[in-house]
């Protein structure tokens, strides 16, 4: 028993200081364990807390209590630099939105996670080209900033970037949304390859067929919603 | 003649200036502020040098005054007459016979000795002023030996002119500590700043005195690939044939005629007295001189 | 005082600030600021005008003397040294070797009457470079790295656009390979398109050179793109710290929530 991601007793509250200090309890007693090579889907109705839980795993949201171990680092309590190191080396995240410096070429956007872990420029760009080819971004767009791309193209650039470095743990937020059938197929193969090399994956998929194909288990986060469980 | 206190300035003022001079000698190259007095001549005519000379002279001294190397220019004659009248000291045009030499823009060609004092007139004493207008900041830079800026000036020279175009007031570093403006002497004179005599610098308008004690190390700033060169016109004096002296170019007519002559008039005269004759010179005639 | 201060830790922070205070008379400049900055980290300091962020930056960079507290820097030669009690010459030496300071207004950080090459070369000459050809070569290389054409090397910054002046200032600061860069609103006053290019340039340099940086800004978009960590200041006090995206996406303090919710969405 050596799970890559191990979550126990996690709670999340939002305190709205500027709205009468309302305290909103959105999650309590969240438990989750993901082994290497395993893909777990978070399910539950919209607003049940799938994204919230995923963001807490990434350190983007602050957990109110509990522990979130990723490769032995407790994200709920770690120093910023420990989380940054974890994100650089271990924990990848494909969000629904591409957030990059305007005017940076697509090729460099995709290569960046590799440069951050010390891969040399030539090797990083070679890997970026390979991935951009796979997700069918035409080569003539590689030197342009993805900020000008269509939603579907941005999503594919985001996926290429997320899979550039072989993270041992991956968080996928709707990776197949707004993709056509052929690109959806490519993304699912990328996920399967990541699993095969031992990556622990947590994903949110509205696409049920995709979920059925790549996920080993489903966890309904409704169970962690205060007052609903 | 006794209407004047010796050398014009009152004794308290001379003591104040002597203290500044002694401090300057103790900290070679450091600019010592002093309470510069109004002198009966305008700023820019050597009021700083005159005050230093006044504080330095004793009744037994023999004074020589030169301007651009010459004893016979208006400025030199005026200052010489000023001290003849207010101090009653002996004066001379011969470098070797003088005990105190006040100069503007030159160092005499003849080597000075330990018995002599060379007093420079200085217009702008701050070598960093070109790039840093704040006096507060330049003083801080001196105190912290923060001299990168000085080389920036030389860098700019080379990038603009292909060489260090600064040909006078060429900055030096004294005893490996203070960067100093040697006054507007030609850079040809820079190597002579390491000498046996005491060198005192007075800036009247800027109210600064600084000094170089005998045998002090004085290095002209430069780059490894653009080393300092003590350049002069590539010619011999047309009157005395000297090839080792700093030359003035003199235009002789409207048809492009010109000649080179020693800027140090005493040096030229003494060479001609010793029988040296230049290309355009005639045999030395004591009466004509 | 040259005694090194021991810090028991596996990884030594590059900068350790403890209980830093600065008062202007009875008014608080900044109060009780403490943090560690590790090699390679970029920290943003945000807050509105008068929040004390510029005061803090100037205290850290040695431009202002704090009234209390320590600013420990991991010097190359002697390990952790308190730069507050360091002598002025030592501090200035740091200021032209291991530290860099990028001003908001390029004219505060450049010599406007000196050529671009001379501006970049100054720090080299200040630390003893005396070979014109080498200095010029390095200057031209750095102009290239900040995307200024080689043929502008002898032009003065007065002939440059605002964005170019800012890039020149960055080159001038980074030429000696500093380890810590202080930036005061580095993209302030620039056109949005120019800002983007500068941000990208800074990100690249930070990564390539392994720089640590402290960036003061009121622009949350700038810190989101540049800073790993964030410190939020209000009335001279630090009200919240954390990972940049966590502080911006899940702010805990009332003031941070207000600050984040006040940003216009594009």
In short:
Chain A is an alpha/beta fold.
Notes on the structure:
The complex is a heterotrimer of chains A (229), B (289) and C (266). With 229 residues, chain A is of the alpha/beta class. Chain A has a domain at 100-164. In chain A, 35% of the residues lie in helices and 24% in strands. In chain A, the strands form two sheets. In chain A, strands 6-7-8-3-9 form a five-stranded parallel sheet, with helices on both faces. Chain B has 289 residues and is an alpha/beta fold. Chain B contains six helices and twelve strands. In chain B, a hairpin with a 3-residue loop joins strand 6 and strand 7. The longest helix of chain B has 16 residues, at 11-26. Chain C starts with 14 loop residues before the first strand and ends in a 5-residue tail after the last helix. Chain C is built from ten helices and ten strands. Helices cover 37% and strands 25% of the residues of chain C. Classes of the chains: A alpha/beta (229), B alpha/beta (289), C alpha/beta (266). Chains in contact: A-C, B-C. Chains A and C meet through strand 1 and helix 2 of A and helix 7, strand 10, helix 9 and helix 10 of C.
Count of separate DSSP helical elements of chain B: 6
Name the strands of the widest sheet of chain A in spatial order: 6-7-8-3-9
Give me the secondary-structure category of chain B: alpha/beta
The chain pair forming the largest interface, with residue counts per chain, is: A-C, 21 and 26 residues
What's the mean pLDDT score of chain A?
A: 93
Give the CA-based shape of chain B.
Answer: globular
SS-based class of chain A: alpha/beta
Bin the helical content of chain B. Answer: 10-25%
- The shape of chain A is globular
Can you give the helix content of chain A as a percent range?
25-40%
H and E string of chain A: EEEHEEHEHHHEHEHE
**What average pLDDT do the residues of chain B reach?**
93
Assembly classification: heterotrimer
Gyration radius from CA atoms of chain A, angstroms: 18 Å
**Strand-and-helix sequence of chain B, N→C?**
HEHEHEEEHHEEEEEEEH
Provide the β-strand percentage band of chain A: 15-25%
Low-confidence segments of chain B, given as residue ranges, are: none
The total count of strands of chain B amounts to 12
Q: Going across the biggest sheet of chain B, name each strand in turn.
A: 1-9-8-5-4-2-3
Unreliable spans of chain A:
none
């Amino acid at each position: 028993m050596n799970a890559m991601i191990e979550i126990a007793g996690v709670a999340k509250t939002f305190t709205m200081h500027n709205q009468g200090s309302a305290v909103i309890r959105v999650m309590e007693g969240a438990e989750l364990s993901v082994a290497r090579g395993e893909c777990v889907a978070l399910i539950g109705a919209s607003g049940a807390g799938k994204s919230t839980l995923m963001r807490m795993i990434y350190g983007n949201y602050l957990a109110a209590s509990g522990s979130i171990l990723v490769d032995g680092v407790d994200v709920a309590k770690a120093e910023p630099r420990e989380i940054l190191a974890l994100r650089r080396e271990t924990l990848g995240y494909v969000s629904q939105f591409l957030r990059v410096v305007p005017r940076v070429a697509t090729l460099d956007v995709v290569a960046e996670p590799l440069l951050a872990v010390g891969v040399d420029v030539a090797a990083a760009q070679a890997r970026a080209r390979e991935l951009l080819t796979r997700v069918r971004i035409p080569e003539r767009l590689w030197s342009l900033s993805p900020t000008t791309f269509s939603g579907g193209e941005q999503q594919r650039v985001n996926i290429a970037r997320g899979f550039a470095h072989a993270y041992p743990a991956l968080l996928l937020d709707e990776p197949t949304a707004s993709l056509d059938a052929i690109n959806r197929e490519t993304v699912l193969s990328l996920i399967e390859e990541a699993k095969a090399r031992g990556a622990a994956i947590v994903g949110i998929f509205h696409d049920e067929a995709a979920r059925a194909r790549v996920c080993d288990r489903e966890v309904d986060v409704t169970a962690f919603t205060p007052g609903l469980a | 003649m006794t209407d004047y206190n010796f050398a014009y300035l009152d004794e308290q003022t001379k003591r104040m200036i002597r203290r500044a001079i002694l401090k300057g000698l103790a900290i070679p190259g450091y600019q010592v502020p002093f309470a510069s007095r109004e002198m009966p001549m305008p700023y820019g005519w050597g009021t700083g040098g005159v005050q230093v000379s006044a504080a330095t002279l004793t009744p037994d001294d023999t004074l020589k005054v030169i301007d651009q190397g010459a004893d016979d220019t208006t400025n030199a004659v005026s200052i010489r007459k000023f001290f003849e009248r207010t101090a009653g000291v002996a004066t001379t045009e011969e470098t070797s016979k003088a005990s105190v030499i006040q100069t503007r823009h030159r160092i005499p060609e003849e080597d000075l000795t330990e018995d002599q004092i060379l007093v420079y007139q200085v217009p702008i004493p701050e070598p960093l002023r070109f790039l840093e207008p704040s006096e507060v900041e330049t003083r801080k830079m001196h105190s912290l030996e923060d001299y990168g800026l000085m080389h920036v000036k030389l860098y700019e020279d080379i990038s603009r002119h292909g060489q260090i175009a600064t040909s006078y007031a060429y900055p030096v570093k004294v005893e490996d500590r203070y960067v100093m403006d040697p006054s507007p002497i030609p850079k040809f004179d820079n190597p002579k700043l390491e000498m046996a005599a005491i060198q005192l610098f007075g800036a009247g308008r800027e109210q600064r005195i600084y000094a170089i004690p005998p045998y002090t190390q004085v290095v002209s700033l430069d780059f490894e690939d653009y080393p300092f060169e003590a350049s002069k016109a590539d010619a011999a004096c047309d009157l005395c044939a000297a090839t080792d002296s700093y030359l003035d170019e003199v235009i002789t007519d409207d048809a492009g005629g010109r000649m080179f002559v020693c800027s140090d008039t005493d040096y030229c005269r003494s060479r001609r007295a010793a029988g040296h004759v230049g290309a355009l010179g005639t045999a030395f005639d004591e009466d004509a001189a | 005082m040259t005694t090194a201060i021991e810090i028991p830790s596996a990884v030594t922070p590059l900068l350790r600030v403890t209980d830093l205070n600065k008062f202007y008379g009875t008014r608080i400049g900044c109060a009780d600021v403490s943090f560690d900055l590790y090699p390679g980290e970029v920290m943003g300091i945000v807050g509105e005008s008068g929040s004390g962020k510029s005061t803090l930056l100037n205290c850290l960079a040695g431009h202002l003397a704090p009234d209390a507290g320590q600013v420990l820097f991991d010097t190359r030669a002697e390990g952790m040294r308190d730069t507050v009690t360091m002598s002025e010459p030592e501090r200035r030496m740091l200021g032209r070797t291991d530290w860099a300071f990028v001003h908001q207004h390029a004219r505060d950080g450049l010599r406007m009457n000196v050529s671009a090459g001379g501006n970049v070369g100054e720090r080299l000459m200040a630390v003893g470079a005396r070979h014109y050809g080498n200095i010029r070569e390095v200057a031209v290389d750095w102009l290239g790295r900040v995307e200024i054409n080689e043929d502008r090397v002898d032009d003065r910054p007065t002939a440059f656009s605002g964005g170019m002046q800012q890039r020149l200032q960055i080159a001038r600061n980074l030429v000696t390979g500093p380890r810590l860069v202080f930036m005061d609103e580095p993209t302030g006053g620039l056109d949005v398109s120019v800002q983007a290019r500068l941000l990208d340039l800074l990100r690249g340099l930070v990564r390539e050179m392994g720089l640590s940086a402290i960036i003061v800004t009121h622009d949350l978009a700038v810190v989101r793109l540049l800073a790993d960590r964030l410190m939020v200041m209000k009335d001279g006090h630090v009200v919240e710290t954390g990972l940049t995206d966590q502080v911006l996406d899940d702010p805990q303090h009332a003031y941070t929530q207000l600050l984040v919710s006040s940003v216009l969405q594009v």
